[in-house]
Amino acid sequence: MSRAVSPLHPLAFAVLMACAAVSAQAVEPSSSNNAASAVIRFSVPAGDLGQALNTFAEQASLSLAFDPALTQGKQTAGVNGQFSAADALVQLLGGSGLQALAISSSRYRIEPAPVVADGALELSATSIDGAYQSESPTGPVTGFVANRSLTATKTDTSLAETPQSISVVTKDQMRAQGAESLTQILRYTAAVVPETRGSTASRLDMLTIRGFSPATYLDGLRVPSSRDAQPQKDAFDLERVEVLRGPSSVLYGQASPSGVINMVSKRPTDTPFHEIGVEYGTFAKKRTTFDVSGPIDDDGKYAYRLSGLYDDEDGQIEHTESRRQSISTAFTWRPDEDTSLTLLGHFQQDPKGASYGSVPAFGSVLHSPIGRHIDVDFYDGDKRIEKSDRDYYSVGYLFEHHFNDVWTFRQNARYLRSEGTYASLYNGSDGLRPDYRTIPRYTIASDVDLDAYTLDNQAQARFDTGPVQHTVLFGADYQNTTTDTRTGYGSGPTLDIFDPVYTGKLQTPAYTTDGTQRNQQKGLYLQEQMKWDKWVLLMGGRYDWATNHSSTLNLNNRTKSKTSLDSEAFTGRLGLVYLFDNGISPYVSYSESFEPQSGTGFGGSVFKPTEGKQYEVGIKYQPPGSNSFITAAVFDLIQSNVLTLDSDPTHICGSGTCQTQSGEVRSRGFELEGKASLNDNFDVTASYAYLDNRVTKSNSTVLYNPDPATGATVSADEKGTTSYGVPRHTASAWADYSFHEGPLRGFGVGGGARYVSSSEDAFNTLKVPGYTLFDAAVHYDIPHINSLNDNLRLAITATNLANKEYVASCYSYAWCWYGSQRTVQASATYRW
Q1: In sequence order, what are the residues at sequence separation of 6 or more whose Cβ sits closer than 8 angstroms to the Cβ of residue 548?
Q2: Distance from CA of residue 818 to its chain's centroid?
Q3: Which residues are paired to 278 by β-bridges?
Q4: How far apart, in whole angstroms, are the C-alpha atoms of residue 336 and residue 567?
Q5: Which H, E and C letters describe 778-830, residue by residue?
Q6: pTM of the model
Q7: Which residues constitute the domain of residue 638?
Q8: CATH number at residue 365
Q9: What's residue 38's pLDDT?
Q10: 64 in a domain, yes or no?
């Protein structure tokens, strides 16, 4: 790992822009001085207090800051009619034991009310700041239901007003289900097929959305992909995860048409927060965590957060281990009510990464002719050579400044570096030998260094033209990723899959190639959100410039090759929503994506980016007075310019037939998802998705060897096939109930089921049976151990409770992957 880190010129430029924006606040002072005193017509229904405060904040265009725990279990009589914001808050909080303190002209903080003789709640001014909004699209949410998001529009927008399918997994849902990785977080999300390789490749987040692999973002900035140095976030570091389904290049640039997964980091809290946790479970699981946060000064201008974890366990594949240690920091500075700067830092080491192996189809998904069954924990490698060591760190910031009631400037930036070394002995793609028990094996070694700079500038304007409300977003973003990769391959000894003996001479292969790849993307985008009466119209357009430069050095003969590719693309999005008074919001939308391709066709013609186009029709339903959200969507998605064989056999490129871009993949389907926090006791989420994903245009044929006994190779047309590991049907449901009164006070129980229908291998000649898995959890909260604000939570979570043995997916007859086995984890978490 001796390569030099590239200079930080994009971030240096970003800092200068941020400083310029801070100094510009003197140009025009904020004019939001009468938001709290203006008389507004409110229509906030009775019900859950937390939900009512969310509705109030949206109707009043104010920000509320409060600890979600303060409103748990509290109800309100609501408020209807014309009031000032201050008077409406008094009515909303009546009888709750809470009061609203004025932080500024447009912000309030909810706190426990002091005991007053006449029981009145006082609205008094204070200089304290730095709080989450109610509900902030990046802050904590009580229960399973989030109402707002930044991901779909990059503006603080209600999910009901977003004309595209989006899901939000909250921190409470992650905790209830015991999720610790991104694939585990999304197990109960519609149209997401997580853990496509089951219990193997756990060091990578391998999943699909609507049949395609999605782009992953952290705090709105792209996380670069590179298999052996791919950064992976732990659920403990996240506040929420948002899934935007369908093409999303208008705001995010180059990506597959599947959509965007945006992970949101924990931020500093407005009130002091402390947490420590320990966990022990199956596969020798040992995990410790800590998380502390709060304001630094009395005025609340400075706040911090520091969290870390240590995790160690055996892999579910025999002879493998996983280990992780990380620390995350966050610091927020709010010099005034209009400006905030949050610095984020993260360092993580994954010195052990389990296995990346596989098993043959015969003996796992198929009956073996010799009557033997491959053990679910079978290991195709050798621990003497196995290595997966990954380190990564990142530094960045999130800056926001409100110039006045109209203009807001935001700038987000991050530098990330990841280093990964990998070595393995693995089951070969040429499949079983004719004895149906011997597999060929090969060796691989890699050393990868990855550097990534990302920068996103946004200028937002909110204004009215007569009865029409406008939110206009101007954006300019930049991505620069450099990946240096050294690789080597070799052959290894064969292995008996029914009687494995891990002996013999082994040698890690020497590196034979040293490659460097640099990708840059610059984009300009414009988005308009118009709201007139009950209509919401979303329009957006973007233009991108993408470059790809790669060079490869052959370390044996010192020859070097270079390629360069420049791409440009325009993408658009259009959507319309109608907001009925009963909470129903039907919508229609059209969206596009693009993804650059490498290589050339006949005559050196440069490949164009693949293009994604989607039509979507859906309904969202948020019953008034209920903390619930239901969405249904039907979509038709086409990816064009897909590479396929050149139909002219005389066109020769290198040593084989050329490729053209006449291929096409089509994905059609239906999705249904509902989340509800019916009261302080009961949380539920459920989903169903139907997907028809297949190649609709292709000149290619695929070759496979279905029977080791004959060794015969069979060819089949690619047209009409579905992607491997993509099921037709998926469904899930989870419910969690907690007792807050009576003899069972503090006790809670949760449970869920996940169904995945059958899928095909890459050649559509091998069917992998579907499966149903059951999960469960019990928890017990013990409050007030040492103070009025502390709580000890004891919990046990179990996944695949019945310990069902199943195959998650198969790529071919040679490569299949067993699903995750039963895991049981016991934890104790103390908060104060």
Answers
A1: 517, 518, 519, 563, 564, 565, 566, 567, 596, 598
A2: 24
A3: 288, 828
A4: 43
A5: EEEEEECCCCCCCEEEEEEEEECCCCCCCEEEECCCCCEEECCCCEEEEEEEE
A6: 0.85
A7: 263-831
A8: 2.40.170.20
A9: 67
A10: no
- For residue 287, tell me if it sits in a domain: yes
Half-sphere exposure of residue 326: CA atoms within 13 angstroms, side-chain side? 26
**Dihedral sign computed on CA atoms, order 13, 15, 19, 22:** positive
Tokens for 433, please give them.
Answer: 């030998």
Residue 365 in any domain: the answer is yes
Question: Strands, DSSP E only, in 252-317?
Answer: 259-265, 273-281, 285-295, 302-314
Provide the domain count of the chain: 1
Side-chain-side CA neighbours of residue 630 (13 Å): 13
Q: What is the pLDDT of residues 574-615, one digit of tens each?
A: 999 999 999 999 999 999 999 998 878 887 788 889 999 999
Between the alpha carbon of residue 5 and those of residues 9, 484, 548, the distances in Å are 12, 11, 19
Contacts of 533 (CB under 8 A, 6+ apart): 467
In a domain, 459, yes or no: yes
Q: How many residues are recorded in the chain?
A: 832
CB neighbourhood size of 427 (10 A): 23
- Tell me how far apart the alpha carbons of residues 436 and 434 are, in angstroms, rounded to a whole number: 5
In the chain, the amino acid numbered 373 is H
Euclidean distance between CA atoms 290 and 276, whole angstroms: 4
Summary mean pLDDT of the chain = 89
Count how many Cα atoms sit within 13 Å of the Cα of residue 65 in the half-sphere of its side chain. Answer: 19
DSSP bridge pairs for 330: 305, 344
Cα gap 340→413, rounded to integer Å: 14
Token pair for 188: 């109960």
